[in-house]
Design goal:
The structure is a single chain. The chain has 409 residues and is an alpha+beta fold. It has two domains: 4-183, 2-Layer Sandwich (Beta-Lactamase), CATH 3.30.450; 201-403, Hypothetical protein af1432, CATH 1.10.3210. Helices cover 50% and strands 11% of the residues. The chain has helices at 4-20, 24-39, 62-66, 88-95, 118-123, 163-200, 206-226, 231-246, 257-260, 268-275, 277-283, 291-302, 341-356, 367-376, 384-392, 394-403; strands at residues 41-50, 53-61, 80-82, 99-101, 130-136, 142-152, 158-159. Strands 1, 2, 3, 4, 5, 6 and 7 form a seven-stranded antiparallel sheet that branches.
């Protein structure tokens, strides 16, 4: 357990995280980590409100994590529950009330909610104490519910959450709600930009860009781990990279419908126009005022480069000026480490999602075929180290695919 000085330091850290982290998924991960640390809780989860339901959005569990091989992440299923009095989280959201339960298997019969033990049985885990608090914004709207599970004492024994824990975590959840609302606004702005591209190119959907963004961050973490990059640098870059990766194809807003939606094979000239979406997208961020502008421009410009130098657009003097031209009157190519790492990673994430997805001209490939294509393309289309990172976190990538499904047509 933390002493008082450590708790004060952690309160400061949580406040910094709330003000600094922009991406909604990474924000929830950070908040849940620090709140669990504050209360010495073994596990926790966050539900976000979607209409009349709560979506199970994020979870952490130290006991289950310790059962996994070193370096592997806990995989969880995304599901929704109704906002009503039947479940603990539903009750908290419905009534805007905090619930502090010493033992979820000994809930008083006078309360309307019950504990669903299905997950415990499935995972061989034992939930005991639980603190569930509503996440409420300044307008007193419920944005979600934070559940903290199994408080521990200095000996590691499971104990009840104290009134002090209840007070502090309720305070944290209120602050978190403000940060979540801000992060959701940022995500929605990005998705609106994507919607403009989707109007031009039906492949550029919200589900697609959410998957590519999430894949890219997971691959980056594995790649960074293999390169032994400082964790604090990786954490900072993840937040920016997640949003930048979602905007990889935003330059398609400048491409004619006649080309983007052409049902037949493109001509050579039309394909050259399609290629321009890379530097047209990068041009949107050419007035560099932040790390995000820099990384977003890097991703948009370089996600179609290939490891062997056969990709596009190659070297250009500036985003808004002509290409460098080689002896054969073509742009000089970028290859291998000349291609920025974020471009190399999004290249893999984008192709993986494209092969897995249904398009007007093809059905989704089966998994074995997709994975074999990526293996075969290592060292030609893709950076071998990035492909190694991809396969190291493949189980997490599969769960992301399920988390952001395409809408039924």
């Amino acid at each position: 357990m933390l002493n008082e000085n450590e708790k004060i330091d952690l309160i400061t850290q949580i406040s910094l995280d709330i003000n600094e982290v922009k991406d909604i998924d990474l924000l929830l991960e950070r908040i849940l980590t620090n709140v669990r640390k504050f209360s010495s809780a073994d596990a926790g989860s966050i539900y976000l409100k979607q209409g009349d339901n709560l979506k199970f959005n994020h979870t952490q569990n130290d006991t289950l994590q310790e059962r996994l091989p070193s370096g592997k992440k806990l995989i969880y299923n995304t599901f929704s529950i109704p906002i009503d009095n039947m479940s603990i989280a539903g009750y908290v959201a419905q009534n805007c009330k905090t619930v502090n339960i010493p033992d979820v298997y000994q809930i008083d019969n006078n309360v309307p909610y019950t504990f669903d033990s299905h997950f415990d049985r499935l995972s061989n885990y034992k939930t005991c104490s639980m603190l569930a608090v509503p996440m409420i914004n300044q307008r007193e709207d419920v944005l979600g519910v934070m559940q903290i599970i199994n408080a521990q004492n200095d000996k590691g024994d499971i104990v009840s959450f104290s009134p002090s824990d209840e007070h502090h975590i309720l305070h944290f959840s209120t602050s978190a709600a403000l940060a979540v609302e801000r992060a959701q606004m940022t995500r929605n702005i990005i998705l609106r930009m994507i919607s403009m591209a989707e109007l031009r190119d039906p492949k550029e959907t919200g589900a697609h860009v959410n998957r590519v963004g999430a894949y890219s961050v997971e691959i980056y973490e594995e790649w960074a781990k293999s390169k032994q990059l400082p964790p604090e640098d990786v954490a900072r870059q993840k937040d920016i990279f997640r949003m930048a990766a979602m905007l990889h194809d935003v330059g398609k807003v400048a491409i004619s419908d006649l080309i983007l939606k052409k049902p037949a094979r493109l001509t050579i000239d039309e394909f050259e126009i399609i290629k321009s979406h890379t530097y047209l997208g990068a041009r949107l961020f050419s007035d560099i005022r932040s790390d995000f502008d820099e990384i977003a421009a890097e991703v948009a410009l370089n996600h179609h480069e290939k490891w062997d130098g056969t990709g596009y657009p190659g070297y250009i003097e500036q985003i808004n000026k002509p290409f460098f031209i080689g002896p054969d009157n073509k742009p000089l190519p970028k290859k291998e480490d000349e291609i920025p790492i974020f471009g190399r990673i999004v290249a893999v994430a984008d192709v993986y999602d494209a092969l897995n997805s249904r398009r007007s001209y093809k059905e989704p490939w089966d998994e074995d075929r997709v994975l074999e294509e990526l293996r075969q393309s290592s060292g030609t289309h893709f950076d071998p180290d990035v492909i190694d990172a991809f396969f190291s976190c493949l189980d997490v990538l599969k769960s992301i695919t399920e988390r952001y499904p395409d809408e039924e047509e």
